[in-house]
Design goal:
This protein has 222 residues and is α/β, with parallel strands linked by helices. It is 49% helix and 14% strand. The protein starts with a strand and ends in an 8-residue tail after the last helix. This is Response regulator.
């Protein structure tokens, strides 16, 4: 079972999402919270696999709540993973939420099936970004002068194949798609991904996407 915590300041949203997810045989809603501070407290107590985190909440916003929960993770732990939910695809927090450690970003008006799929994907260790959010993220990096990007010295630790896998991750490919493109087993891709995250000291694939664009390893439009 995938344990889910829902954090949103609107009761109807919490109830609606809760009913939708509770109807799935592999999902268990363990609790909810009406603000970021309560979300942090509840997550520490209930140990969910995934937190659905609203961006704009009172007391503590979703960005700071994400920072605190990711910072709380014991060494080697991947829980909880944060799936950011927002009404606005142009929210100023998109980039910072990913930098804070969020594993996914989805709009609240997405179809119900997309939300269920997103929870499963994020729980499984994949990054998930709404297409409009991905385009915005890439556009932000594309607008930055190349000279302002940090030098990719950390990338020197990667093998050529690991670098190739990182480029494909940054382009939004799943493990299965990467395996098909490189003509290798999916388990081999998973091994490469694990080594990439370990060598670059990254929490998950979402951070790998950010780093790939920040360092110029992948350029917008490629």
């Amino acid at each position: 079972m995938i344990r889910v915590l829902i954090a949103d300041d609107q009761a109807m949203v919490r109830q609606g999402f809760g009913a939708l997810l509770a109807a799935q045989p592999d999902l268990l809603v363990v609790g909810d919270a009406e603000n970021g501070a309560d979300a942090v407290t509840a997550a520490r107590r209930l140990d969910p696999d995934v937190v659905l985190m609203d961006v704009r909440m009172p007391v503590l916003d979703g960005l700071e709540a994400t920072r605190r929960l990711v910072g709380d993770r014991p060494a080697g732990s991947e829980r909880p993973r944060i799936l950011i939910l927002t009404t606005f695809d142009l929210d100023d927090y998109v980039y910072e939420a990913l930098r804070a450690g969020a594993s996914g970003f989805l709009l609240k008006d997405a179809p119900a099936a997309d939300l269920v799929h997103a929870v499963r994907v994020v729980a499984g260790g994949e990054a998930l970004l709404a297409p409009s959010v991905t385009r915005r993220l890439i556009a932000e990096f594309a607008a930055r002068p190349t000279r302002d990007r940090p030098r990719p010295t950390a990338l020197a630790a990667l093998t050529p194949r690991e670098t190739e896998v990182l480029r494909l991750i940054a382009r939004g490919r799943s493990n299965g798609e990467i395996a098909g493109e490189l003509v290798v087993a999916e388990q081999t891709v998973k091994t490469h991904v694990g080594r990439i995250l370990a060598k670059l000291d990254l929490r998950d694939r979402a951070q790998a996407v950010v780093l790939a664009y920040e360092t110029g390893l992948v350029a917008a439009g490629e």
